[in-house]
């Protein structure tokens, strides 16, 4: 009662094929793969910038208050 038989999986597969069609599933999987690839590329681009600084160094510069110079 707690496990699915082969007939359950065949019915699920038939319903999925009826909803999406044969050509739509590979297209959908290709779009998912492109999305993952772009996400990974974006993560790598965020870690290093063109000048070689990392995000942590930039965050420290922003968080550090500007030094005030006073004339004596």
From TrEMBL:
Gene Ontology CC terms, in alphabetical order: TAT protein transport complex
Name of protein: Sec-independent protein translocase protein TatA
Pfam families membership: TatA_B_E
Localization of this protein: Cell membrane
Ranges of biased composition (kind: Basic and acidic residues): 50-64
A GO molecular function held by the record: protein transmembrane transporter activity
Main location: membrane
Lineage: superkingdom: Bacteria
UniProt keyword Cell wall biogenesis/degradation, yes or no: no
Complexes and interactors: The Tat system comprises two distinct complexes: a TatABC complex, containing multiple copies of TatA, TatB and TatC subunits, and a separate TatA complex, containing only TatA subunits. Substrates initially bind to the TatABC complex, which probably triggers association of the separate TatA complex to form the active translocon.
Regions that span the bilayer: 6-25
Keywords per UniProt: Cell membrane, Membrane, Protein transport, Translocation, Transmembrane, Transmembrane helix, Transport
Membrane topology: Single-pass membrane protein
Species: Paenochrobactrum gallinarii
